[in-house]
Request: fold
Amino acid sequence: MMDILGMYLKINGLTLLLACIWDRLAGDPRWLPHPVRLMGKMIGGLEPFLRALLPGRERGAGRLLVLAMVFFWWSVPFGLCFLLWRLPEGMFWPIVIQSLFCSQLLAAKDLRQESCLVGERLRAGDIPGARKCLSMIVGRDTALLDQAGIIRAAVETVAENASDGVIAPMVYLALFGPAGGYLYKAVNTMDSMVGYENERYLKFGRAAAKLDDLVNFFPARLTGCLFCLAAALLPGCDGAGARRIFLRDRRKHKSPNSAHGEAACAGALGVRLAGDAWYFGKLHHKPWIGDDLRPIRWEDIELACRLMYWAQALFLAAWLLILFLAL
Reply:
């Protein structure tokens, strides 16, 4: 039994390594149907159907949505991988193919490209262009942001999405294989679409939001720890500052998981993140994260991306080392 488990985890580790390489080289090719878009269409189709099926029972309809998404996005990848591994050609092609599809769960390259476009616009002095690029990757209103606000929002996006776009999918791929990675991404997509505390989704999206909090609990904290370690190794970053701010400010967010990466990143860079922000024309008051030790610069966007890549590499190296030494 232990031999089977060890082989399963080693295959997952090799799949994860290749998926990271695929993502680093190609990102998310536009010609390839992206699973998150498919998940979004499925959620968009199920929501009105379930609301009509259970009129007046929004929480029940929301729970059915969670059950349907979890069952589908676990069982389908599991079944496809099962069929893939029954091919007579051996291990090479199954690992290559499943790693290609698992790479779509990782957002490191796309996150870096999109955020650094903001920095490039700022370097060229194009503030309106930077606001437009930023609006493609954040949910807040960008029209009134000055240069410092634009940079801060871009750095926050990298720091926060390093968890649910990079480290968390890696954790679930490493432990549970492609089915685990796709299940995680389905939960994360549900939360991004229906997990809002507004009149429409307060009850319907509650189950999705709570499940998202649960599946991100460990990865979010791991991301903060990896950022602290990466900051200690990466030139231009402050490892001690990252640890200090991470321990002090990681709970300064309404979500229990969102501020861990932001806090470590703010400490590593020696800047202040978060603060008040406008969403859909309404001002939301949020506490500052980090200390304002220096003015934030457009170069900090690239530095935050380097932190993200170092954190990814540290997790991957540690996991592979554990697998191939202990199993």
